[in-house]
Design brief:
about 40% helix; DNA-binding_regulatory; hydrolase activity; about 300 residues; globular; 10 helices
Length: about 300
């Protein structure tokens, strides 16, 4: 009887393990699936369609809003499983305040092709191309960047992270390992998340070619070399405030953080457009409209 019970228990554990592995593979497939979006026309803003070349030969598509030939420019980088459409309200606000704006679809998002979402790792190629395009398009102008979540991670993982004149990071995760754990824990609790998270992150190397240890944006934040504003939601469980405070601590000054009370992992502009303009655009005004220019 004891042997039979042990056999049944062993079989149950094996089946549970197989189920968890299969489930994690399915979830992983959903998480890395490309997010294509067909772009509608937006006649209310004078967008110019742009196509950027990348080191991988895959094009990156975007829109360019030019205010004037000598206006400072701002690059907008959307969040995961989104597209440049997410950034239109920010683009309009910046354009109305005298900025030229470049919105792009990061690789594997929107109209930009790609085989898989990589949470900022390969998306960094789009950031590289965007900065070089801007540097040629508006020579002599200051260039700022706003990255939301994965968009900010892509910036920090890029080769051009130290070339901008102002940086705004909205709710950007410090490490992929923490990001996955936090998101799983929201749905399952910490105990189960500690089991499921490794099953997800261990898929990265065989499926995408890099490990979770290779995707640590926090390790590069001290290489920005430009004034930094971090935007955080006080109630964000995806990227908790303490994690963003730790990122801020590792950045070089000048640096600051804007914490929005009662805000979760959400669109901060949509939550309070006026407050966003006061904090973010005022930060850019102070940084990009001054007399000093970052040495590229």
């Amino acid at each position: 009887m004891g042997k039979r019970l042990a056999a049944w228990l062993g079989s149950g554990v094996l089946l549970a393990a197989i189920f968890l592995m299969g489930l994690s593979y399915y979830i992983g497939s959903k998480l890395i699936a490309p997010h294509p979006v067909v772009m509608p026309a937006h006649p209310e803003l004078p967008f110019e369609n742009v196509t950027l070349s990348t080191a991988t030969q895959a094009p990156v598509y975007g829109w360019w809003l030019q205010k004037s030939s000598d206006a400072p420019a701002v690059l907008l980088l959307h969040s995961v499983r989104s597209s440049r459409l997410e950034m239109i309200p920010r683009a309009k606000a910046l354009y109305d305040r005298g900025y030229s704006v470049l919105l792009i679809d990061l690789p594997s998002h929107g109209e930009s092709p790609g085989n898989a979402i990589t949470f900022g790792f390969r998306e960094a190629a789009g950031v590289n191309s965007a900065w070089h395009w801007l540097y040629q398009r508006v020579p002599g102008s200051k260039i700022g960047v706003i990255g939301i979540s994965q968009g900010g991670a892509a910036l920090l993982m890029s080769d051009v992270r130290g070339k901008f004149d102002a940086v705004v990071l909205e709710m950007v995760y410090p490490t992929l390992q923490q990001a996955v754990h936090n998101r799983v824990a929201i749905r399952t609790g910490d105990a189960l998340a500690s089991v499921i998270t490794p099953l997800l992150t261990l898929q990265l190397k065989p499926r995408l070619g890099f490990s979770a240890d290779a995707l640590r944006p926090v390790d590069h934040i001290n290489q920005l070399g430009a004034p930094l504003l971090i935007v955080a939601g006080a109630d964000d469980r995806h990227t908790p405030l303490i994690e963003l405070q730790q990122m801020l601590a590792r950045a070089h000054p000048p640096k600051s953080i804007w914490v929005l009370p009662g805000v979760h992992h959400q669109d901060t502009f949509a939550h309070d457009p006026d407050a966003w303009k006061r904090h973010v655009i005022d930060f850019l005004d102070h940084t990009l409209r001054g007399n000093l220019k970052h040495q590229h």
